[in-house]
Amino acid sequence: MRKILFIILLLIITLGYSQSNKNSMGDTISKVNPKNISIDFPKTIQIEDVTKKEKKQSSLITNMPWIVALIIGLLSVLANYWVAHILRKSNERNLRSQIESNERSLKVQIESAKDTALTEFKATIATKNRQEWINELRNTLTEYLSSVSLILPTPENPSKKFNDEKSQLIYRMSLAKAKLELLMNREKAEQKELLNKIEEMFNVANSNSMEGYVDKMVAARSIVINAARKLFDIHWKKIKELK
After folding, report:
1. Exposed (0-12), middle (13-18) or buried (19+): which is 177, by Cβ within 10 Å?
2. Phi, psi (5° rounding) for residue 155?
3. Residue 129, Cα to own-chain centre: how many angstroms?
4. Could you give the angle at which helices 189-205 and 160-183 cross, rounded to 10 degrees?
5. pLDDT tens digits for the chain (243 residues)?
6. For residue 104, how many other CB atoms are within 10 A of its CB?
7. Full-prediction pTM beyond 0.70?
8. Does residue 11 contact residue 65 with C-beta atoms inside 8 Å?
């Protein structure tokens, strides 16, 4: 705004200075001494009717070019100022819109990265827990199979050593069996199948008949191992798929 006022003031000063020069020039011409002017009249003078054609122009008409120039200058300054104002507002809107768009894009990227990281973290935790569960299940099942495989039917007159050893094996077998039941869930088909095979092997171990005992125990042991392998294969695939 100060720039516009400065330009207007400059134009007014220029207009006043020009008018002052014009008046001073007229005064100079009017002060010329007529005595210094010599006129040579021709021998024959023809007098014609001379009518004053020029009329004194008004001050407004005389100064009209300067007024028009001043108005045009003012309009140009105002137009330039308005255009600059519009462009500045447009640039501010565009900049604000760009900043908001960048903020939204950044928020989306942060949320996406957070979701991805959280998903990977959960998958890692789930995989680690599953791996630990498989290791614990395998170790407990190994303890169970080794204990049951060593149990033999009780003879008619067992020795104290036999009874002590069998009692120790039964204790270990019972402890492992209870742990297996806690580690697995009967509501899941593959786990239910393994628990059933473990129970069948347990029933064979509690048999008091020596007839076909070894063959029954070997068969029951093989069935338990196959069911366990099936279960492990399922969970190994889930670990590879990060489930």
Report:
1. buried
2. -75, 180
3. 31
4. 170
5. 555 556 666 656 665 555 555 445 444 444 444 444 455 545 555 555 444 444 455 666 676 777 778 788 888 888 888 888 888 888 888 888 889 888 888 888 888 888 887 777 777 788 888 899 999 999 999 999 999 988 888 777 888 888 888 889 989 999 999 999 999 999 999 899 999 999 999 988 887 777 888 889 999 999 999 999 999 999 888 888 766
6. 10
7. no
8. no
